[in-house]
Every structure is written in structure tokens, then in C-alpha cells.
Amino acid sequence: MEVVILIRDCDNRMYRPWVLFVCKLLVDLPMQFFFYFLYSIITYSMIGFQVDIHKLLYYLACISMLSFGSKSFAFFISAIGFDNAALALSLVVSINVALVLFTGLFRNPNTIGTYLV
Predict the structure, then answer these.
(1) How far is CA 117 from CA 13, 105, 110, in A?
(2) How far apart are CA 69 and CA 62, in angstroms?
(3) What is the number of other CB atoms lying within 10 angstroms of the CB of residue 96?
(4) Which of 57, 79, 87, 92 gives 20 to 30 Å between its CA and that of 68?
(5) pTM of the predicted structure, to 2 decimals
(6) Distance of alpha carbon 84 from its chain centroid, rounded?
(7) Which one-letter DSSP state was computed for residue 111?
(8) What is the pLDDT of residues 44-56, one digit of tens each?
């Protein structure tokens, strides 16, 4: 139903599609921030990190940005216009796996050159 309204509004030049997705992200952000905060506190204490408010807030910022970026990426994939939800979900998962593999998380720190440190 939302796609029909979006197409109609874009045809009437009421707004552009990127405005809708940015507004959806911004409206959803305060509600989701509570869950990011709750998740961060639970996992931070369970992992046993150092008890420091600055490090906890840094951890919260990392978790929030990761979730925000993932949600933006999912909106982008859905905006491309897949009719099959299973195909879109498999595409998102396969691209995310490729991104995680090539981020350097599985790289030995001793093999990284000094110019990158």
C-alpha cells in the first residue's frame, strides 16, 4: 500500500523518494535508540568490558551507527523494487556477508602495514 502512495505522490511531484526514506529513518531513530541503549548496557556488562562511562557511550555509538547503517541499507534494497521478499532478503544477507569478510575483522593485526596503523 505504501508503494502505491509513494508512486502517486512522486508522480504529482509532492516529494522525492529519498525524502520519504530519510524521514522514516529520522522518525524511527528516537524509538530505536532506547532499544540500542538497552542492548548496549546488557551486552557491555555481560562481555565484561571496563566499567567506564566514556567507553560505554562509545560502544553505544558504535552499535547505534551499525544498526542505523544496516537499516539504511535495507531501505535502499527495498527501494530498488524487488517483488519477491525472499530474493531481497537473500541479497541483503549475501552483500552483508561480503562486507563483513572484507572489513578486516578476520585479519591478523601483525600483517597490517605500519602505513595503515
Answers:
(1) 48, 14, 11
(2) 11
(3) 13
(4) 87
(5) 0.61
(6) 21
(7) G
(8) 888 888 888 998 8
